[in-house]
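Budget justification aside, the reviewers requested a transparent look at the raw inputs and outputs of the sequence design task funded under Objective 1. We therefore reproduce one unedited record. The lines immediately below are the structure tokens for a 359-residue chain.
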């Protein structure tokens, strides 16, 4: 399951966007740039599509899979995509480069500890972050992962200056060997990277300290003009919120849709089911009800790390303009009972015997 999941999350280079520019949804078609299409990581997007919530909003959503090294925010700004799912650091650096982008929907309001972390080999003598003082830490990327490492070190009373860092890139067999050899004592990255280590035969242990939930994982970016002049983005996010709500309230529906979208991820059903449950928790709204809520204080925390402690940003982004918090009520204006009724009906029609039992 992990090998299949890693393959899905390191998607091929962008192909669906094509050479031209998008219509901004004027023709009812939206292009969504995402690094993990049709996978467990984006099961809410899968549900919004397969349960017909996008169609209810009069939308046809074209998925554009994007490789790790493709700047999704740049695709949105350049009108190669209408909406893009990006990491918080990528969003903020893009917001600094241009005033043309907005973040109207925060994706992982349930927390980031499961998706982002700091790991060591399972047999390592390093037990806590404090043990890393003076050691070399490998980074999957030089911005978000460095910022996350900075926050983790701060929790242990250390600073980024107390360690050495080397950007070794996304998780792979080669990086696993570097970690196992001791040339890097720990590695800051994401679950995708850690799964690659598992595939390479190197089990790892998470030593991330608690209390980092105040940092956002990322969100969806759109062009400012599209958001200001059209209700298409709001309709997209309302459908996405419905898919998220259905998945959280009806885990059997989430599993059935995820199995349809990526059956290769379900070779080990119990592991896949556990991953789905953990990912569901990261999508849980702060108040249990309001999907996509953006809390500026969390984004300010991330910006401060990138700006003041990680040297990723040269100057602050104007968060009051960049974070579009004024469309939240419209996004969440959907019929909860009707959404669940649709999910239940869909499950009745889409439970083939070969899927096996569901929880």
């Amino acid at each position: 399951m992990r090998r299949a999941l890693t393959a899905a999350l390191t998607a091929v280079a962008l192909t669906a966007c094509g050479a031209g520019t998008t219509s901004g949804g004027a023709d009812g078609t939206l292009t969504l740039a995402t690094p993990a299409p049709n996978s467990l990581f984006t099961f809410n997007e899968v549900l919004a599509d397969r349960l017909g919530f996008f169609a209810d909003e009069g939308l046809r959503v074209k998925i554009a899979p994007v490789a790790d090294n493709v700047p999704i925010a740049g695709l949105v700004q350049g009108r190669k995509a209408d909406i893009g799912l990006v990491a918080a650091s990528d969003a903020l650096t893009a917001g600094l480069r241009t005033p043309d982008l907005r973040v109207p929907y925060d994706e992982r309001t349930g927390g980031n500890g499961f998706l982002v972390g700091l790991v060591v080999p399972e047999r390592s003598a390093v037990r806590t972050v404090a043990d890393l003082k003076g050691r070399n830490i490998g980074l999957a990327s030089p911005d978000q992962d460095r910022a996350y490492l900075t926050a983790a070190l701060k929790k242990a009373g250390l600073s980024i200056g107390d360690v050495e860092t080397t950007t070794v890139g996304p998780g792979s067999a080669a990086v696993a060997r570097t970690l196992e050899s001791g040339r890097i004592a720990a590695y800051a990255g994401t679950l995708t990277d850690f799964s690659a280590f598992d595939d390479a035969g190197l089990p790892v242990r998470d030593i991330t300290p608690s209390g980092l939930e105040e940092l956002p994982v990322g969100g969806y970016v759109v062009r400012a003009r599209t958001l200001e002049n059209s209700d298409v983005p709001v309709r997209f996010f309302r459908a996405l919120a419905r898919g998220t709500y259905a998945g959280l309230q009806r885990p059997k529906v989430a599993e059935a849709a995820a199995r349809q979208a990526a059956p290769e991820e379900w070779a080990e059903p119990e592991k896949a089911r556990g991953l789905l449950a953990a990912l569901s928790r990261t999508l849980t709204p702060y108040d249990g009800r309001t999907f996509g809520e953006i809390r500026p204080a969390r984004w300010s925390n991330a910006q401060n790390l990138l700006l003041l402690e990680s040297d990723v940003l040269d100057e602050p982004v104007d968060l009051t303009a960049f974070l579009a918090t004024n469309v939240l009520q419209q996004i969440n204006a959907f019929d909860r009972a009707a959404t669940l009724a649709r999910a239940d009906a869909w499950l009745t029609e889409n439970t083939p015997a070969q899927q096996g039992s569901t929880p």
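Confidence is low (pLDDT under 50) at residues 1-19, 354-359. The beta strands are 29-34, 60-65, 83-87, 101-106, 116-121, 136-139, 164-167, 186-190, 204-206, 218-223. Computational costs for records of this kind are itemized in the attached budget.
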